[in-house]
Amino acid sequence: MYGKLFIIFLLLTIAVGALAVARRFGLPAMLAYLVVGMLLGPFGLRALEESHEVDAIAEFGVVFLMFSIGLEFNLQRLKAMRNLVFGFGAAQMALTALGTGLVTIYAYDQGWRTGLVVGLAVAMSSTAIVAKMLSERFELHSRSGRQTMGVLLFQDIAVVPCLILFPALAQSIEELPRSLSLALVQAIIVLTILIWAGQKWMRKLYDIVAKHRSEELFVLATLWIVIGLSYATGRAGLSLALGAFIGGMLISETMYRHQVEADIRPFRDILLGLFFVTVGMRLDLGFVFDNLDRLLLAVFLLVAGKGAVVFLIARAMKSGLDIALRTSAQLAQGGEFGLVLIALGYELNLIGTDVFQVTLAAMLISMFIAPFLIDRAALLSGQLAKGDWAHKAKAIFDISAAGFGMEKHVIICGFGRTGGQIAQFLAAENVPFLALDFDPNQLKRNVPAGGKLVFGSADRDEVLLAAGLSRARALVVAYPDTHSAERVVRKVRQSRPDIPIIVRAPDEHDVPRLKAAGATEVIPEVLEGSLMIAAETLTQIGVPMERAISQVRTARAERYASLREYYVTSGQVKEKPTKT
Fold first, then answer.
1. Which of 16, 317, 402, 458 could, after both became Cys, cross-link 413 (CB 3.0–4.6 A)?
2. Integer Cα distance of 225 and 245 in angstroms
3. Over 157-200, what HEC string results?
4. Structure pTM?
5. Mind giving me the DSSP string for 205-268?
6. pLDDT in tens, 284-342
7. 504-517, pLDDT tens digit by residue?
8. 208: Cβ contacts below 8 Å, ≥ 6 apart
9. Are 451 and 436 in contact (CB under 8 A)?
10. Which residues contact 526 (CB under 8 A, 6 or more apart)?
């Protein structure tokens, strides 16, 4: 009893230390856990030894990870991204797995089952690393970002059949057809029952739990569902994680999805961290250094081969050189699900120790170098984009044609909900406008009379020139991220120091940064939203509308006056009287 308690205490101590180190150096927590496992495991300092207790705890990390993926499984999102997910994503997965499998079979003289397991594991990329970097760089909604997230979403879905396939592959060659057929039938029967029953009772169960208004009961009910469904699929001969995925998918269709996600996150993060510690414990550093040449070759084949596959698929889908390069760099690494699959294959004796060690080490190294590779590709793609005039000639011509003859017009950068609303106001006042957007979905929207919408990214000098920046009376930046907006403002200010630039910002923290870039006025959405909610609240409780609107005007004048202090104190502009 005390020995098990000490193991749990030691693992929690390591988790706390690893997370603190990761936050200190800005690294993904997953990499810190892996390093700790390598250093303190049986092949390192031997402070930790593998045991059934450690493996059991770590396995629940995978269970909760799959539950979280199920929560994010949204049919509407899949439908909107179906071409990227089932086109780009499926092609990347199939070609990468096939190429890696063939190299494993013929170059490393392994069996076909080993090649299949290694190929599927290597085909996975790191959602944790890539999504974090894209979010920090404000590139989640860029074209390369959408392609990358579509591929990652397909990989998340592909884990489910892999969890069914691997145990069947572990059977003898004579039993393999029977095992695969049995696993398929079991999966269909169990999943059908769980989904049918879940859709019927899941919402009712949470409705009953929610009526008691007890946070403890809500969390316990969620844990009960996760463990219960995992047990059900485990007893049916399938993976524990498969049941958790089904549970998450069923809850994602209810109104309680976000509350469940918030409640389950601490359990998921802690247990998943322990899983990565156990993965790091399995890496034999002595073997790695003794076979350094094989390892470096494996890393090169993984990064270069996977990157080449993604690059070629992106080019086949009509992406520019810069977009294809960014997408390939963002996906050219191993991933957390790859670690799950390679560990499962090793436990089922589908791959040998040597192959496991080389593949695991190569995947880990590729994950460590991924941030540097993504940054380097971003710089190089920027240089390619500047020189790729032939590829963009038609787009520039279309912008010039749309802006031809426009005088005293307004340029709108970004035609989402905010940009579309601005366009309607301009049209009502008979003010001509030219809207630019690089999202193909936004280009399908209806445009009010008197304006035009064309494809283009406003952070390019040639695009701004073609849009008639020299003749425009104002420019509005309605991008959802601050990084892109700042880049546009700086570009515009270099050519037109006099033009008014109005910028949308998520909140007030971004205002000084955008003001310093040259924005005439920055409108924080959080501020405006809160003021309108306050006005509506006052009206609903009986305060006269005129008084409520007066308070909003006063608050708005005071707040924007305080924002202008940034310019006043820096001496860049003279203070102007506030209009109320």
1. 458
2. 11
3. HHHHHHHHHHHHHCCCCCCHHHHHHHHHHHHHHHHHHHHHHHHH
4. 0.64
5. HHHHHHHTT-HHHHHHHHHHHHHHHHHHHHHTTS-HHHHHHHHHHHHTTSTTHHHHHHHHHHHH
6. 888 888 888 888 999 999 999 999 999 999 999 888 888 888 899 999 999 888 888 99
7. 887 777 788 888 88
8. none
9. no
10. 506, 507, 508
Structure tokens at 51: 């045991």
Give just the sign of the alpha carbon dihedral 368, 369, 372, 374.
negative
| Residue keyed to tokens 């009893």 | 1
Bridge partners of 476?
412, 502
Name beta bridge partners: 411: 434, 475
Taking alpha carbons only, the member of 85, 90, 55 closest to residue 72 is 85
Token pair recorded at residue 303: 């990064």
| CA angle (136 as vertex; 392, 310 as ends), nearest 5 | 50
Residue 189 near residue 240, CB atoms below 8 Å = no
57/64 Cα distance (integer angstroms): 11
pLDDT, tens digit (0-9, with 9 covering 90-100), for 115-137: 999 999 999 998 777 876 776 56
486 vs 168, 455, 522, CA distance in Å?
Answer: 53, 20, 11
Q: What is the DSSP letter of 343?
A: H
Residues 39/31, Cβ–Cβ less than 8 Å:
no
Write out the two tokens for 549: 């609107």
- In angstroms, the CA 454 to CA 532 distance is 32
Helix axes 143-169, 240-251, angle to 10 degrees: 140
Residue whose entry in the numeric block shows the structure tokens 């601050």: 482
Q: How far is residue 70's CA from residue 371's CA, in Å, rounded to a whole number?
A: 27
End-to-end CA distance of the chain: 71
Instruction: Please report the pLDDT score of residue 525 as a whole number.
Output: 78
* CA–CA dist 395, 412 (Å, integer): 17
CA 7 – CA 574 distance, rounded (Å): 65
